[in-house]
User: Fold this.
Amino acid sequence: MIRTDIYNYVNVLDKAADASSLRNELISNNLANVDTPHYKRKDINFESVLQAELAGEKSLYKAVSRANEELEVLDPQIYTDNSSLSYRLDGNNVDINTEEAYLAENQIKYRTLVDLMSQEFSRYKQVLSESGK
Assistant:
């Protein structure tokens, strides 16, 4: 984490990428336990935490700056999904097709976040190289 206003977007994107990476681990674990009796799928709550943190500001720059001041607020929360529900007689609530769809969606999200961070650093590099001329 870098503490300066220039990296506000990168820091928030980094937290989102970390959350996406954690979600990938949880989904992989869900898939690994698809046949485990009484296993309940796990997931994280990050998007709503980020959305709540960015809400209330008319300017995205101000919202991201405020979120950057307290990045620890953006930590994802792991939860057990529908712990009282079960799709099967053995008590397991993991659906392999749904998990594979979540995994594909999450991988696209992660790659997009990494690409956005890379673009931000490319912009910084371009500005620094032009200011040095």
In short: The CA atoms of residues 13 and 116 lie 8 Å apart. The chain has four helices and two strands. The helical segments are 8-32, 47-54, 60-69, 96-131.
